[in-house]
Amino acid sequence: MNHQAQIEALLFVSGDKGVSMAELSQLLDLSPNAIEQQLEKLKEKLSKSQDRGLKLVQVEENFKFVTKKKFHHLLESYAKGPQSQRLSKAGLETLAIIAYEQPVERAQVDEIRGVQSQGPIQTLLLKKLIEEKGRKETPGRPILYGTSKYFLDYFGLKNLSDLPDITELENETGALPDLFFNTLKEEENGTITESHS
């Protein structure tokens, strides 16, 4: 099997956490030197290709995909456009977890939801409802996420203490706090205005 394709698949599912060379070496049963060569080839292929929107970067010990800077305005337009005005159920669920558990890393959000949250997190970042709050002091130093000032405006809150009282978040959709559940119903009914995108 193509090792480069395997590495690409692993980097994709790892999201912003990324994968270390040691993890890749163990998963693919290849020497670190062989993994390094494959990563260099993939990095060069992505950077030189005009047909690819991603590039490979290294953050401390981990490798991950990020979008190329030249697509920043395109992605920003997408996040603000009518095709992306509404938050999905997954987006609201992810946002609720981040709001109550912040600062929180993506792996914790994944664990609570029971599914990958990379997509919803990227959407929430583009919509500026959440933001990076630093990195956790653990191996790999994963990014910590929290809500933004815009989040407060979006939900009509003065500060985080105005969030509905809740003792724990469950990973069932019906367990979303009323604040988020009502927003979901309003968006499904088309009653949320464009200014709240």
Protein described:
This protein is α+β, with helices and mostly antiparallel strands and 197 residues long. It contains nine helices and six strands; from the N terminus they run αβααββααβααββαα. Strands 1-3-2 form a three-stranded antiparallel beta sheet. The chain is globular. The protein starts with a helix and ends in a 9-residue tail after the last helix. The C terminus is likely disordered.
Task: Describe the SSE topology.
Elements: H1 3-14, E1 19-20, H2 21-28, H3 32-48, E2 54-59, E3 62-67, H4 72-80, H5 89-101, E4 104-105, H6 106-113, H7 118-126, E5 130-135, E6 143-147, H8 149-154, H9 178-188
Antiparallel strand pairs: 1-3, 2-3, 4-6, 5-6
Number of helical segments with 4 or more residues: 9
Mean pLDDT: 81
> What does the radius of gyration come to?
19 Å
| Element string (H = helix, E = strand) | HEHHEEHHEHHEEHH
Low-confidence stretches: 168-175, 190-197
Short overview:
With 197 residues, the chain is an alpha+beta fold. Helix content is 47%, strand content 14%.
Which characteristics define this entry?
197 residues, disordered C terminus, three-stranded antiparallel β-sheet, alpha+beta, 47% helix, 14% strand, globular
